[in-house]
Design goal:
Structural class: alpha+beta
CATH superfamily of the largest domain: Alpha/Beta hydrolase fold, catalytic domain
Number of helices: 10
Strand content: 25-35%
CATH topology of the largest domain: Rossmann fold
Shape: globular
CATH class of the largest domain: Alpha Beta
Number of domains: 2
Distance between the termini: 46 Å
Helix content: 10-25%
Largest sheet: 12 strands, mixed
CATH architecture of the largest domain: 3-Layer(aba) Sandwich
Length: about 650
Amino acid sequence: MRQSSRLLCAIGVTLALTATPGGVAAAHAQPEIQVTDGRTQPVFSYADAIREQVRVETPVDSDGDGKNDLANVDIIRPRETDQGLKVPVIMDDSPYYDNSGRGNEAERKTYDAAGLPVKFPLAYDNYFVPRGYAVLLVDMLGTNKSEGCPDVGGAADIAAGKAVVDWLNGRAKAYKPDGSPATAGWTTGRVGMIGKSYDGTLANAVAATGVRGLETIVPISAISSWYRYQRMNGVLYSYDYMPFLADHVDTDPAAKCAAVRERLRVGQEDATGNHNAFWDERNYISGTLADVRKVRASVLVAHGLGELNVKADHFTTWWQALARHNVPRKLWLSQYGHVDPFDFRREDWIDTLHAWFDHWLHRVDNDVMRQPRVDLQVAPDRWVKQADWPSRSLTVPLSLRPGQDGQGSLGLLPAPRGTTLSFTDDPGQSESEMVSDPTAASPNRLAFLTPPLKRAVRFSGTPKVDIRAKLDQPSANLTALVVDYGDDDRVDHYAGAGGIRTLTEESCHGESTAADDACYRKTETATANRPVEIVARGWLDTDNRRSLRTSEPATPGQYYRFTWDTLPNDYVVKPGHRLAVILAGSDDSETFPDKPAAATVTVDLPGSRIWLPLSAVHDEEPPSTMEFGPAPKREEWRGPKDVVLPTPSRDFF
C-alpha cells in the first residue's frame, strides 16, 4: 500500500491474522482511517452508516418539571465503529431543526416511522462520515425533540452541547429510545462544534465553559455577547427581542415555557438599555457562565463585514480575546452579510474545513496551521491571505471642521477654537436620509466631508468617535456613520440573502442516499453599484457615557466628552472618492429610539475628532497620512440626493 510522506498517523488497514480450519493464517481487515496528502479519505460507506438517536441528561431543569432536561441527539457514524473503529465527532448544536431549518435551503431533520433520523441537514454528514467522523446534530433544550425551555444564550441553552461533550467522554448519562443506558464507546472523545448564527453562538458558549474533549470550534456569524447582539452602549437595536426569539424556536404549546419567557422579558431591562447580571450570564468573553480564559479549543472564525444582524463587533471582540489568551485560531473575513462560506466560496471552504478537522480531531499533520492566519475578501471576486487581523499600521485622527451651508468638513487640522455646529434629534430619521445630499444643510444631522482622496485609503479595524458636546435635554441617542461617497460595484450585503444569489445548478460534496443527498444549489455574488456606502456605524446612549451598568442623565447645557467605537471594517476608499463622518441622533434604520424628547446636540468642533485605523492598501506601501486632491468648487459636487438604502435582512438564522 502506498503511503504519503506527509502523514502523522498510520494509513490504510491493519491486518489481523487468525487461524483457519486448515491451519492457514488468513488476513482480516480491521477498519482504519486512511489519509493521503494530509487529508482523510472517503473509505467508509455513507449509505451503510449507523443512524441512531440518544437522549443525553443535562444538569438543568429549565422547564421546572422536577426532572433534569434530556437533550435529543441524532447520530450518524460509520458502521465500522461497531467493529472497533473509534472516530471523532463533528457536532452542530441548534435550535432550528424543526422551525426555520438550516442552511441556504432551510433543511430540517426528518425521521422514519420508528423515529430514527433519516435526513441530517447540511452536508457535514455526507462529506465527513465517509472520511471517518461521526456527525451529531443536537437539539438545543426547548426545541425539536429535546426537553426544557429555550433560555436565549443562558444556562439552559449551553447545557445540551456541554452535556453531549461530557457524555462522549464518559462524564454524563444518556439513554436509548427504549430507556436503556447509551454509551459512546465508538468515539475517541475528541469533538469539534460547528454552526452558523445561533448554532455558532452555542459553539462559542460551550467552548468558553472550558469543557474537556471539545478540541475545536467553527463559529460562523456567531454571537460572543448577547448584550452586544441586542444593543450598543445602551442603544437598543430592537425591543422585547429575547422572549420573542425564545418563542420562535419553541414549537411546544406556549404555556409550557411562558414563565421562562417572562423572566427573559424582565431580565433584558429594555427600559434602560443597561448591562446587568442577565447579560453577564450571556457574555462568553468574560461572563459568569462562560469566559474566554477557559477556552481549550482551537477556533476557526468566519464572519461577514457586511453583517447588520450579528454585527462584526462580535467577531472582533472574540478574536481579540482569543489572541490575548494565545488560543490557536484562524479567520475567514468576507464582505457578505449573514452568509455561510459554504454559500459564497464553497470549494475553498470545504477544503479548509477538511484540513482543519483532520488536524484537530484526527491529529493529521497537515499544513492548515502553517498557512497565513487570515483569509480576507477585498473585492467581490478577490481574496487575499494575511498574517493577522486587523492589518493596522497607523491610527490617524481626523478633525471635525466647519464648512459651508451649516455643514462641516473633515481634515487633518483642528477647527478654530470656539467653533460649534448643532443638530436636533429626529427619532424617525433613517440612514438613507442621513447620507443623502451631504453638502446641503440639515437640521437633523451634521455631515463632515474630506476633499477627494488623492490616494486610496484603507482602514482595517475599528474607528473611534471622540466628540465634545452638550445637550439641551438630559438624554439623547447619538449616531456616527463613516461614509464613502463614490460610485463603485460592491458586494450587495443589504440584499435579502446577504450578498449572494442562489442558482438552479447544484454541486455535490460527499455521498448521498435517497433521503439525504449531498447536493446543494450553487450561488453567485450579488453586487450593486451605488454612489454611497456606509462603511462603519456606531451608537451611544448619552446616559451610558461612563458606564453600561448605570444610567446617568446629563446636565443640559454642560459639555461632556462622548467616546465610543463604531462597528469594525476592512475597507478601501478609492482615489477620487470622499470620506465623510455623519453625526446624528436616533438611527431609525438600525436602532430603537427610547427617548421621547428630541434633544438638540451642540458639538464643540476643536474638541472633536474621529480616529481611523489606516493600513496599507493591498500590494502598496503603508501610508504615512491621508492625502487629498484639490477640492473643486462647491457647486461642482453636491453628492447623491434621495438615497434609498435597501433594508437588510434581520433573520437570525
